[in-house]
Specification:
The chain has about 375 residues and is an alpha/beta fold. It has a single domain, classed as 3-Layer(aba) Sandwich (Rossmann fold), CATH 3.40.50.720. Helices cover about 40% and strands about 15% of the residues. α2 links the parallel β2 and β3. α1 packs across α9 and α5 runs parallel beside α7.
């Protein structure tokens, strides 16, 4: 592999990276990127490795000696500190990040996203190791504009809804709205990391993803994930489409979201990894403000895309309305808009997303349709036990 340089023309040093949560959606794509395009070594830490088996099992791959899988639960495993000490950089992707869990499992959500992350931050700080920590766009909570009357002209002013890392306040609902347990835990670990940087010199970068979408995302219940549970909105809609069911619009689907293709987003993380002088000490929004839709518009577009990739006729009644209480349970609350300001990441790393919403949906739904069809075929072929 030819010598590579960073954005400032300096030679890129080969790194050993401790990647916590390497077996998940984001981790699997990041592992692929690093193994295929760099010489970095990966200490892959997770409790599952299903999504990276293709990277681990083929000993003939060029990178066979550059990735090691360590089956570790970071809640209670003393080996974690040793792996962080061995690495130049730690990337922490571990989290409970499914909205349905925020209400039904608030304690697990808070522990997973704050308490379990504390040792990672501590080990990095004490051993002078760089940390890239994955947070969430949910730390912003609600926009200022959401508190204005619906017909107020300032609701349309970007200053009241575009989310900037350095200036936007973080506004959560009341304590009884347990939906904010995730956002609050994520914000608190961000503040702790920032404080470690200020007081103890920790070199850190914080990533705030805005709905990263692509193959291997979330799960199809009973196929590539637990048979029970409610995944995030796009995966929920995918499941409905795969099963020929109407897509459920929570409270009419009026919330607005942006979506970015996983391969675009991973390119941004790659830049953070290899440009520490430009990334350290920064919080980065990583999203695509050009791919903004209401949840209802997303459902309509997904129905159209799925009909194209599957060859199936679209449902006559593609959507049904459900209340948030019925869908998520008591204590749910929602943010109105999440539009990322991209100024900082563009200035520091020169990154801009490229993939349109239609194209990322087509890639994702093609993958999910194929995966689901293969799973159904296996289930049909499986012999039934007889007494």
């Amino acid at each position: 592999m030819a010598s590579r340089v960073d954005l400032d023309g300096n030679s890129i040093k080969t790194l050993t990276i401790c990647m916590i949560g390497a077996g998940g959606f984001i981790g699997s794509h990041l592992c692929e990127k690093l193994l295929e395009e760099t010489l970095h070594k990966i200490l892959a830490v997770d409790v599952y490795n299903d999504k990276i088996k293709h990277l681990l099992e083929n000993s003939n791959q060029l990178w066979a000696d550059r990735i090691q899988f360590h089956r570790i639960n970071i809640k209670h495993d003393s080996r974690l500190e040793g792996l962080i000490k061995m690495a130049d950089l730690t990337i922490n992707l571990a989290a409970i990040c499914t909205p349905a869990d925020y209400n039904t499992r608030p304690l697990d959500t808070i522990y997973s996203n704050f308490i379990d992350a504390l040792p990672v931050v501590k080990y990095c700080s004490e051993n002078n190791k760089r940390l890239i920590h994955f947070s969430t766009c949910e730390v912003y909570g609600k926009t200022i504009g959401s508190f204005l009357p619906k017909d107020h002209p300032l609701r349309q002013d970007p200053e009241f809804y575009v989310l900037n890392e350095e200036t936007s306040p973080c506004i959560f609902g009341s304590i009884e709205k347990q939906r904010w347990s995730y956002a609050c835990a994520k914000q608190l670990i961000e503040r702790l990391i920032y404080a470690e940087g200020a007081e103890n010199g920790l070199e850190f970068t914080i990533v705030r993803p805005f709905n990263w979408i692509g193959p291997r995302m979330d799960f199809i219940p009973g196929v590539d994930g637990p048979s029970e549970g409610v995944p995030r909105v796009l995966a929920c809609f995918s499941n409905n489409l795969l099963r020929g069911e109407p897509l459920k619009l929570v409270d009419g689907g009026q919330s607005q979201r942006t979506f970015v293709y996983i391969k675009d987003a991973i390119e941004a993380v790659h830049l953070m990894i290899e440009n520490p002088a430009r990334a350290n000490g920064h919080i980065f929004n990583v999203g695509n403000p050009n791919n903004e839709v209401t949840v209802k518009q997303l459902a309509e577009m997904m129905s159209e895309v799925y009909a194209k990739v599957s060859g199936e006729t679209a449902l006559e009644v593609p959507t049904v309305d459900v209340s948030s209480k019925e869908f998520y349970g008591e204590g749910y609350d929602d943010s109105d808009k999440r539009i990322p300001d991209m100024t900082i990441i563009n200035r520091q790393l020169g990154w801009n997303p490229k993939t349109s919403l239609w194209d990322l949906l087509e890639s994702t739904l093609t993958y999910q349709h194929r995966t689901y069809a293969e799973a159904v075929k296996k289930a049909i072929a499986k012999p039934v036990a007889t007494s």
